[in-house]
Design brief:
107 residues; alpha+beta; five-stranded mixed β-sheet; 5 strands; 43% helix; 22% strand; globular
């Protein structure tokens, strides 16, 4: 048996990704409005893997998050995005990393 402290960062990330993957859902943006109104909806650019991004957030990888935010790949959903997604009846992939809900438009 391996003690919790003996898991590598890679092992912890893989386990977290598996857990997060089970909690993803495709959902209409219109059903996500409450999270947007609360300021807890976070946009994840299509170039990033939603589950990988969620895992890095949950593991508090500040360096990766800072880089993605600087590049505009991860950011709070803005008013313009929310309005456009609502008008287009956009479906998003969503995953919860409390208190945040990460969303990525489905193509």
């Amino acid at each position: 048996m391996i003690a919790e402290g003996e898991f590598s960062d890679t092992d912890r990330k893989k386990a977290r990704m598996q857990e997060l993957n089970q909690g993803t859902a495709k959902i209409a943006w219109s059903e996500m409005q409450i999270f947007f109104a609360r300021g807890s909806a976070i946009f994840v650019d299509e170039e990033l893997d939603l589950i990988d991004t969620a895992a890095e957030l949950s593991l508090d990888n500040k360096a990766a998050l800072k880089n993605w935010m600087r590049q505009g790949q991860v950011a709070p959903v803005n008013d313009e995005q929310a309005k456009l997604w609502l008008e287009r009846d956009t479906v998003v992939w969503a995953v919860v990393v409390a208190p945040w809900v990460l969303v990525q438009p489905v193509k």
